[in-house]
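Lecture 7 notes: from sequence to structure.
We start with the chain below.
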Amino acid sequence: MDLALNDLGELIATALPNEVTATGVANGELAVSVRSETIVKVLTFLRDDVNCQFKVLMDVCGVDYPDREERFDVVYNLLSMTHNQRVRVKIRTDEKKPVPSVVSVFSSANWWEREAWDLFGIYFSGHPDLRRIMTDYGFEGHPLRKDFPLTGYVEIRYDDEQKRVVYEPVKMAQDFRSFDFISPWEAMDAPLPGDEKAEQADDAAGEGEG
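Predicted structure tokens for the same chain:
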């Protein structure tokens, strides 16, 4: 299997020498890294070439590496039902550099690109309707970025007095608590129901021994 994937990686790299920057096989999967501005050409080739025929786009997702200059990877997972093979195509971008939309190649990319924009802030140029898809209207920030606050920026609730939904700065619902980690069986001083039976049994056993 790995040999066939290596051959496929070499075929793709040979056909697209100016677009492909690296190929590799790991855990039985082929990954192809390409220059971001060429993603439309690369996916069109993978879809149409007779030796590839990756006609199904399974997923588009983002990955965040905040310590890297180009902090985001955009990952495209493709399936060839004809050859029963998969390929993962990866590009890099940052918070400001737009990525060409591939909706013209795979219409299924529409909502996945919107999701990557909503959750990571990855901008897709040429997208027909790039707006948030999972978070609420007026949401601030991109919640899958690794530097996004764990509690978020605002919380939403329905205000019965104003008769509308309101946004408020996030406040901790309760103070942090300290725990002594003592077992409740060890820390319990008061007798538990049924303890008197154990005491009666001990007394009876002591009298019998006397």
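Points to note: The beta strands are 20-26, 29-34, 56-64, 72-80, 85-93, 99-100, 124-125, 154-159, 164-169. The first helix runs from residue 2 to 15.
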